[in-house]
Write a structure and sequence with these properties.
Elements lengths: L16 E5 L4 H10 L3 E5 L10 H11 L4 E6 L4 H10 L4 E4 L5 H8 L4 E7 L5 H12 L6 E6 L14 H7 L8 E3 L8 H8 L3 E4 L4 E3 L2 E2 L1 H19 L2
Parallel strand pairs: 1-2, 1-8, 2-3, 3-4, 4-5, 5-6, 6-7, 7-8
Antiparallel strand pairs: 9-10
Helix pairs in contact: 1-2, 1-8, 7-8
Length: about 240
């Protein structure tokens, strides 16, 4: 359990929260921290090319301690394994990206702040609203709700764009958790995405890579700068 719990986000930051996901080595981690990102994602989903072992994650987490929020990404892992790994790696936040039940999410949320990932497609935000209502009834307060594109057979990392217009007009900013936008974000479109959707935060993996699972330091710096600049402009309105 982290000794210094991460503060819960406000509804309208003056600068957007930026997470760089899928970091696998110390050199890249240091570049992400230097770029000014607020969070780094450590992916424990073995089927992903961006996944890390617990040993690697532990070393990365030690390096990141006190410098950046450490988010662990899990997909349909047993709850006890999620909790044991989060404790072992001293994670600040757990991101649940699979088909976890409300009971499983609640069990994790009793010990760690939780970001819940949703994949939104043709059904719109109805399924999101239903699950958020069930979580609320269970007393779960999410740190954030991450929305990615819905792609059959995939849990994320596809590079497909989430439905910006649906999120812009349909997200209940009064009653729902802070919105973290993911899916197909790049240096070239992140400012446009923030202006269109007004998310609390943004999350990127492939959009700052020069090759599969290989982060490009220049693109990381550019993404963070453009995202934070766009978020600051929105907050100043």
């Amino acid at each position: 359990m982290p000794s210094d719990p991460v503060r819960q986000p406000s509804a309208a930051p003056s600068s957007v929260w930026v997470k760089i996901c899928g970091v696998r080595d110390l050199a890249t981690l240091r570049q992400v921290i230097a770029a000014g990102a607020q969070a780094v994602g450590l992916n424990f989903y073995a089927a992903s090319p961006r996944s890390v072992t617990v040993d690697v994650a532990r070393a990365l987490s030690r390096e990141a301690a006190g410098a950046i929020e450490r988010v662990g990404l899990f997909v349909n892992h047993p709850v006890e394994w999620v909790l044991a790994t989060a404790r072992d790696c001293q994670l600040d936040t757990v991101q649940l990206h699979g088909d976890e039940t409300v009971a499983e999410i609640a069990a994790v949320a009793r010990e760690f702040p939780v970001i819940r990932a949703f994949r939104v497609g043709a059904a719109g935000l109805g399924p999101v609203a239903d699950e958020l209502a069930r979580l609320d009834a269970a007393g779960v307060r999410l740190r954030g709700a991450l929305v990615d594109a819905q792609v059959a057979g995939a849990y994320g990392g596809t590079g497909q764009r989430a439905p910006w217009e649906v999120l812009s007009t349909g997200w209940d900013r009064t009653h729902w958790p802070p919105l973290i936008l993911a899916g197909g974000l790049t240096c070239e479109n992140v400012a446009e995405a923030i202006a269109a959707v007004h998310p609390w935060g943004v999350d990127v993996a492939g959009g700052v890579e020069s090759g599969k699972a290989c982060k490009d330091p220049a693109r990381v710096r550019e993404f963070v700068a453009r995202a934070r600049g766009a978020g600051g402009q929105i907050g100043a309105r």
